[in-house]
Structures are given as structure tokens and as C-alpha cells.
Design a protein that fits this description.
Layout lengths: L1 E4 L2 E4 L8 H7 L4 H14 L3 H4 L1 H14 L5 E5 L11 E5 L3 H12 L5 H9 L5
Parallel strand pairs: 1-3
Antiparallel strand pairs: 1-2, 3-4
Length: about 130
């Protein structure tokens, strides 16, 4: 399964990502807890999805397991080191065609903030 996290696409297939034992441990976590974890991670590093892709991939997997109808998340931190409460979070459900097109751009190094915003988040629209 593909998952868009900010402006990076991750393959969140659990094979090779978590062991079955770890997957069972994570079942107890609520969606609210996982979103809070995402806010904490992005408050620490607003470019987490670029600076620590493995950690971002694990977060995307957790989000996908807790909210299976969404396959995209946007965490917006105003600055590194800000309070987690200041980090905004949005979610979207993208078509298979859209997420695959974004993944192709991502693999080619052409997926950036402007492209993801224009196609998905529409924050910069005038």
C-alpha cells in the first residue's frame, strides 16, 4: 500500500517493516495517540519525511492501520522545536490512480511541496 506523507510517498506494506509481534503491540494504540505521535515527530523535525524517511514510513504505516480509509497525511509545523499542539494535521483519501502518479513523481525526484500541494492539499491555491 502506498501512503503520501506531506510530499513523500512511502510503501507501507508491513512485510519487512514490522514483525507480527510488533504489529500486535501496536493494535492497542488509538488513532488519536498516533496523530499525537506524528505531531510530536514533526514538531521536532518539520522535514521528518525527508530527513528520516524510515521513521516517517513507520508513522505512515501506523496511520494507515489506524485510519484505513485515508492514504495521505499532512503534518504542518510552523518551526522546528515548536510545541506539538501547534502542528496541524490533515488527512485525505486519494484514488489509486492519483497515489500511483504521485509515487512515480516521487521515484523520479519530481515530487515536491508545490506539486503535492497542487494535487492534494491545495494550501497554496490563490
Amino acid at each position: 500500500m502506498l501512503y503520501l506523507l506531506n510530499d513523500a510517498v512511502f510503501d507501507v506494506d508491513p512485510k519487512g517493516l514490522v514483525t507480527p509481534h510488533d504489529a500486535r503491540r501496536f493494535e492497542a494504540l488509538s488513532l488519536a495517540y498516533v496523530i499525537g505521535l506524528g505531531r510530536e515527530l514533526f514538531a521536532e523535525d518539520p522535514l521528518l519525511h525527508r530527513n528520516d524517511p524510515e521513521r516517517a514510513r513507520r508513522l505512515a504505516w501506523l496511520l494507515a492501520t489506524k485510519q484505513p480509509d485515508a492514504n495521505a497525511a499532512l503534518f504542518m509545523a510552523p518551526a522546528a522545536g515548536c510545541a506539538p499542539e501547534r502542528v496541524g494535521a490533515r488527512f485525505a483519501s486519494l484514488s489509486e490512480e492519483m497515489i500511483r502518479a504521485l509515487d512515480a513523481k516521487n521515484r523520479e525526484g519530481e515530487l515536491d511541496v508545490k506539486t503535492a500541494d497542487k494535487k492534494v492539499w491545495k494550501r497554496l491555491a490563490a
